[in-house]
From TrEMBL:
Part of the signal recognition particle protein translocation system, which is composed of SRP and FtsY. It comes from Mucilaginibacter segetis. The gene is ffh. HAMAP family: SRP54. This is Signal recognition particle protein. The keyword Nucleotide-binding applies.
Length: 440
């Protein structure tokens, strides 16, 4: 995400790279480049101008005799200002009330229903809550089906009333059901329209007045750029929502929506959607997003996501197996599933500093795992448990079963062997100490 903007900002900074100090002249030139980069990224003109004016003011006021180069200084300034532009600190969900009621609003296709499922999944798995979903779109039976399928998938109950044509009543029934069943969060997925529509606005206003929600989250597709910002403005004028959810940030977004929304509606972005899977949801951290835009990577998010997928019991089991040198292809297979659960590979790699830019033109996808998975699936249970018995003739058979070349199987076997050796070494304190001693 945002590769284009990162590239252009990088170029803008180059103007300053060879310079010994920040002067009116070289800052003016850099700011012009930065403003252009922001406008190209579909940032609202007023926002871009106010932003660059602000950075220029601060840059010129800086003491040029500091130990950092002007380029570094400007990067830091930009980082601070971008963070501020996107809201400063992460905005938490207000989870008071019993049950907490969260209303989801937005246009059709923005990703409302998907987000409703993701949020429920997040609150259930990360916050230990017991959510109930309410299907409050009376116009599209398919939307109700979709929510029910998602609910089934993540193990969260869904309230729907196919007989009723009254969204206010359905929402209230859902809340009553939650109280009865001990659900402490109710997430109401409302009806959208293709475009802003008076009847829709009135309907959702009525639902809001009736259920008195703690949170009203406005869901919008980040790929629509300035349109997203304009739609946000209209919804906010009517609904006074509490936060924004930007979806599809995994797509080819230029970043404009993320950068302008806060300054236009003065409401925080609370979540970002980064894929179609239920796990592809991140709490929005303005500081991390700023460093991502500046190409500084986002190690913290990466680490957090890894931790979320990490099952301690499973990890302890795995440790034990590694110590006994019993790590087998079943373990390897389940490791791959864990990595896949973490989300889109390219997106994950983009969070590693320095890698983001490199990966720009490389196609990485979950398909990379497909061939490995096929090979492992073509092994017999005995082979998976005892990789050492996999001789040449077995390899030939496995390759045929997986529809691949013998070479591929050989390569995987070699990688697996190397991995086992390394794991064994790392789990042996004496060997580890020995390795450390040999390090320069
Ligand atoms: P709704 O009409 O607002 O309820 O939108 P949906 O939840 O049905 O989403 C519309 C489409 O966008 C679906 O195909 C979703 O899979 C897709 N979608 C939703 N969120 C994301 C996201 O964060 N990334 C990507 N790539 N697709 C998404």
């Amino acid at each position: 995400m945002f590769e284009n903007l990162s590239d252009k900002l990088d170029r803008a900074f180059k103007v300053l790279k060879g310079q010994g100090s920040i002067t009116e002249i070289n800052v003016a030139e850099t700011m012009k480049e930065i403003r252009k980069a922001l406008l190209d990224a579909d940032v609202n003109y007023k926002t871009a101008k106010a932003f660059t004016d602000d950075v220029r003011q601060k840059a010129i006021g800086q003491n040029v005799l500091t130990a950092v180069s002007p380029g570094q200084l400007l990067t830091k300034l930009m980082n601070d200002e971008l963070t501020e532009l996107m809201g400063g600190t992460a905005a938490e969900l207000e989870l008071k009330g019993s049950p907490t009621v969260i209303l989801i609003a937005g246009l059709n296709g923005a990703g409302k229903t998907t987000f409703t499922g993701k949020l429920a999944n997040y609150l259930k798995t990360q916050k230990n809550k017991k959510p109930l979903l309410v299907a409050d779109d009376i116009y599209r039976p398919a939307a109700i089906d979709q929510l029910q399928v998602l609910g089934g998938h993540i193990g969260v109950p869904v309230y729907a009333n196919l007989e009723s044509k009254n969204p206010v009543a359905i929402a209230l029934e859902g809340i009553a059901q939650a109280k009865q069943n001990g659900n402490n969060i109710v997430i109401i997925d409302t009806a959208g329209r293709l475009a802003i529509d008076e009847a829709m606005m009135q309907e959702i206003e009525r639902v809001k007045a009736a259920v008195n929600p703690q949170e009203v989250l406005f869901v919008v597709d980040a790929m629509t750029g300035q349109d997203a910002v304009n739609t946000a403005k209209v919804f906010n004028d009517r609904l006074d929502f509490t936060g924004v959810v930007l979806t599809k940030l995994d797509g080819d977004t230029r970043g404009g929506a993320a950068l302008s929304i806060k300054s236009v509606v003065n409401k925080p972005i609370k979540f970002i959607g980064t894929g179609e899977k239920m796990e592809a949801l991140d709490v929005f951290h303005p500081d991390r997003m700023a460093s991502r835009i500046l190409g500084m990577g986002d190690v913290v998010s990466l680490v957090e996501r890894a931790q979320q997928q990490f099952d301690e019991k499973e990890a302890a089991e795995l440790q034990k197996k590694i110590r006994k040198n019993k790590f087998d292809f079943n373990d390897f297979y389940s490791q791959i599933q864990q990595i896949k659960k973490m989300g889109n590979m390219k997106d994950l790699m983009g969070m590693i500093p320095g890698v983001g830019k490199m990966m720009k033109d490389v196609e990485v996808s979950d398909d990379a795992f497909k061939s490995i998975e096929a090979i492992i699936q073509s092994m017999t249970p005995k082979e998976k448990e005892n990789p050492d018995i996999i001789n040449q003739s077995r390899r030939t058979r496995i390759a045929k079963g997986a529809g691949t070349e013998l070479q591929e199987v050989n390569r995987l076997m070699k990688q697996f062997d190397d991995m086992r050796k390394m794991m064994k070494q790392m789990s042996n304190p004496a060997a580890m100490a020995n390795m450390m001693r040999r390090m320069p």
